[in-house]
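Section 5.1 Outputs to date
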Amino acid sequence: MRYRSSPFAIFAAMALILVASVTCIYVMGMVPLHRTAELVQRQVVLDHIERVLTTLIDAETGQRGFLLTGDDAYLQPYHDAVARIHGEIDLLRGLAKEGELRQADLDQLLELTNHKLTELDHTIDLRRTQGADAALAVVRSDEGRVTMTALRTHLSVMADQQLAALRTARATADRFTYYRNLVFGFVTLLNLAFLAWAYGRIQSEMRAQDETAHELRRQKDLTTVTLSSIGDAVIVTDNTVRVTFMNAVAETLTGWKFAEADGQPLTTIFRIINETSRQTVENPVEKVLRLGSIVGLANHTLLIRRDGSEVPIDDSGAPIRDEQGNVHGVVLVFRDFSDYKESERRLTTAKAEAEAASRAKDQFLAALSHELRTPLTPVLATLTNWEGSGRFNAEDQNDITMLRRNVELEARLIDDLLDLTRIAKGKIQLNTEVVDLHDLLRSVKGICQSEINAKHIAAELQLSATRHYVNADSARLQQVFWNILRNAAKFTAEGGHVEICTSDCADGQVCVTIIDNGIGMSQETMDRLFRPFEQGQDEITKRYGGLGLGMSISKALVDVQGGTIAAQSDGAGRGARFIVTLPSVDPPKVSSSSAPERRRSDSGQSLRILLVEDHADTARAMSRLLKSLGHQVETATTVAGALDLAVKNNFRLIISDIGLPDGTGIDFIRQVRRHSNVPAIALTGFGMEDDIARSREAGFTVHLTKPVNFQKLEMIVQQVANDHAEPG
């Protein structure tokens, strides 16, 4: 008997296949959903890891502010960060218990975090009990940086693990979605085939309609699931600007449930204003319908929620088009912008605080400069007067010259300390001239001779360069070689040897090499040598002292003058070699006139000078020196006294300090300029760029910084007088 399949068997087989297929689709559909939940959880872990790092940075910022200023107000961010970090750690503990984070990683993070917080507490306690130097010594020990680096590395590893898990989960979700679509397609084809067999051609149109309806439902369901699953808020409207869909995030942000908002005008649900003007912002859906394109919301937009509270939002709206390109709705996607706004506010606050700290630092440096320079002025003036008097024997004259050079060098050291700010801002000022390197090196050796002699070091000059002239700032260049030679003497044992050599190099360069047989340097020391406040190993710093500024400033000064500086050593105990290269120039033409003397030449003018100076020693020494140059000098110590003298007398030149008891030299010269154009020189301990700009703006002809080189002062006095001489 021939077996014939009955319709019932066909229906039963199709039912079984359908049930199996639906079950498979359901299982494969649940996997992406679970993986999506895992993606969200992994992202939460990543967010907590990032907040741990940013919170630790906030704590360290607060601690550094307190260490530098001693102001408890800087500790508020620190205390806030410490409170937050414990909260973040507790949240990570919960995630570890749920299996989202490895316990070993959490334990290591907790250990590093506790170590960092202990270090921060310790430095704060040191600052309170022992002062800034003790606390900053701990900071300079590099322990904090090492701990923070370890924290960054560990948190990065934890983040990488979470990212790897994210990628795995996403790949699994994509794979199962693909399989589900394949099964779904297979079942659809099978059903279509079954419908074709069952109903035949007479049901073809109905079948097509069913298929279309099915596809629309599937697309709608898929769209609904997608929009409901994303992390941003989503509102969908029709082309009459009425709400047709809201996801859970949109419900949270607006305060409206979709069941209540469905069919409502968007302007009722989504009320937005400009956060600055408080004016109503154009409805984004209406703008999309009007323009027919994607539009972005301004990031200064506030959403007024149902309860009247406000939340900053950001993002965009886009048109929904059918197959013919007609717009039949708009999808509006937005997000809570509060965290960004808070970060922006914090950044603005931090910038303002940094700028205020920078201004305070500049004010402190200006005051420090004035206080350090002022006492040197009368000393230098007196030594200059003695040096040019001719009243001393040769040995005493040499001693006076040596003293004057060292006082001038002390002033240069003060300038170098302040030059750290100028170097950072790229504002190093140079007074270039043609300089004989050989003469300059002999002078530097003379300055360092006492230190060399004290340790019985044999210092040898081997000046072999044929092209030994350079276009440079003589004082700055002298400071460079003084730093190198002084270090060579400092780090060379008694009875050691130092060589100062010059030679011609390639490309028209002249090389200066200073060699010693001292303690030498490791590679690590040479790597750190030209950094500010670095002196190599701690034991060397403790033994030899110093600030660690000389070589960093020297490098900056050589670089800005077109040269190079390098250090070499074969290791500890094997000496060191410093090589400075500079572009050489032709020697200057020999002038027929004799070198300028400190005394007024026969061609010099005798001037009537008003000297305004409240520092008694400086006023006395300056007055004596100017009189020795043949000038007539009257002194005043206050703005009022100076104004009285300026009105009653016909002075040819005014030399004035800036800081005076009853005002400033700025005030004084502004009042003088109301009735007189007499040339004026500002001679002051304030030498920052802003100080110079203010004095020039007020009406001073020249701004000089104490203690001034008096040969330079004499030249400027005569030059200013000649430039403003009355016609004969």
